[in-house]
């Protein structure tokens, strides 16, 4: 099975897990659109070294009433990407 060396979503960087989930412009737009649609005030992942770093920051920035929605997005967005 051949593996494309560059990200197929943006063709701007090597396809690493960090790029695909956190740094890819397509992924960042997906996070932003999902948060906007659900009115979740969490920051969009971007410059964190790991998804867990973003998760801890996002959890702190999200009101308790929206934490379950944030948890769902944090699991479903990476799966979709
Ligand atoms: Zn990309």
From TrEMBL:
Domain of life assignment: Eukaryota
InterPro entries: RVT-Znf
A Pfam family assignment: zf-RVT
Domain Reverse transcriptase zinc-binding: from-to ranges: 2-31
Official protein name in the record: Reverse transcriptase zinc-binding domain-containing protein
Lineage of origin: Eukaryota, Viridiplantae, Streptophyta, Embryophyta, Tracheophyta
């Amino acid at each position: 099975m051949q593996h494309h060396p560059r990200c197929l979503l943006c063709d701007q960087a090597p396809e690493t897990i960090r790029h695909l989930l956190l740094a890819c412009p397509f992924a960042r737009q997906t996070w932003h659109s999902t948060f906007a649609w659900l009115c979740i005030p969490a920051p969009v992942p971007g410059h964190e070294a790991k998804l867990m770093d973003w998760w801890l920051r996002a959890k702190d920035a999200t009101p308790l009433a929206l934490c379950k929605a944030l948890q769902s997005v944090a699991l479903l967005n990476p799966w979709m990407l």
